Amino acid sequence: MTKLWLIGSNNRAKSHDLQLCLAYYGIAAVSYLTQTAKLSFPSETTTSYVQNAVTKAQFAAQQLQRPVIADDSGIEIPALPTTLGVTTARDLGVEMSGMARNQAILTALQSVTGVDRQATLRATLAAAWPDGRLLTVQATINGYIATTPAGQYSGGFDRIFWLPTTGRTLAELPAVWRLPRTHRGQAARQLSQQLSKMKGSVL
């Protein structure tokens, strides 16, 4: 079985979060940047989470000749139907900080109240091997956009994504409670289950 996966992303914050989620379910992974020089990934040109994740994972697996896990994720807000989703990073600006992205969403929803602040976080993970093998999994979580950011345990959208089941934002939950509730955490659980069914997954 594959003992150590490389995470195919140049986003260090996303890689760290994914590393924690994978580790929670027993998958050892590190940013590929700890092993080699920075890659120039193909531009995201599709409207498919799956295709974006697969493209990144397969590209990195071929370039590095190592097993790679890549992620594509986004936030979907029905009150903002023409933006976000699979194009979240492009709509909000690839170089924009997490704090600035959150503020842009809060500003766009400033006149929206109650149940109309519903939101979904979606994640797709693609695991690719240099020999062409491929696995993909997807997961979503539903909640609401808070009126103000809250929480210190994590960053990004976690600070404005409020879970009705806990009465807190994701960022207000310590890792042991947060990780299994996140979209990436639930995708990591599915990936772990799929990998456990595979045989001969060698480095």
Lay out the secondary structure.
Layout: E1 5-7, H1 12-24, E2 29-31, H2 49-64, E3 68-76, H3 88-92, H4 98-108, E4 118-128, E5 134-145, E6 161-163, E7 168-169, H5 175-178, H6 183-197
Parallel strand pairs: 1-2, 1-3
Antiparallel strand pairs: 3-4, 4-5, 5-6, 6-7
Helix pairs in contact: 1-6
Give a concise summary.
With 203 residues, the chain is of the alpha/beta class. Helices cover 32% and strands 21% of the residues.
Question: How would you describe what is shown here?
Answer:
This protein is globular. The protein has helices at 12-24, 49-64, 88-92, 98-108, 175-178, 183-197; strands at 5-7, 29-31, 68-76, 118-128, 134-145, 161-163, 168-169. Helix 1 crosses helix 6 (183-197). The protein is an alpha/beta fold and 203 residues long. It contains six helices and seven strands. The protein starts with a strand and ends in a 6-residue tail after the last helix. Strand 1, helix 1 and strand 2 (29-31) form a beta-alpha-beta unit. The chain has a seven-stranded mixed sheet with strand order 2-1-3-4-5-6-7. The longest helix has 16 residues, at 49-64.
Largest sheet: 7 strands, mixed
Tell me the distance between the termini. Answer: 7 Å
Residue share in β-strands: 15-25%
SSE pattern:
EHEHEHHEEEEHH
In DSSP terms, counting alpha (H) and pi (I) runs of 4 or more, how many helices? 6
Class from secondary-structure proportions: alpha/beta
Question: Spatial order of the strands in the main sheet?
Answer: 2-1-3-4-5-6-7
The amount of helix comes to: 25-40%
User: What radius of gyration results from the CA coordinates?
Assistant: 17 Å
Shape: globular
Count of strand segments: 7
**Poorly predicted ranges (pLDDT <50, ≥5 residues)?**
none
Estimate the mean pLDDT confidence. Answer: 90
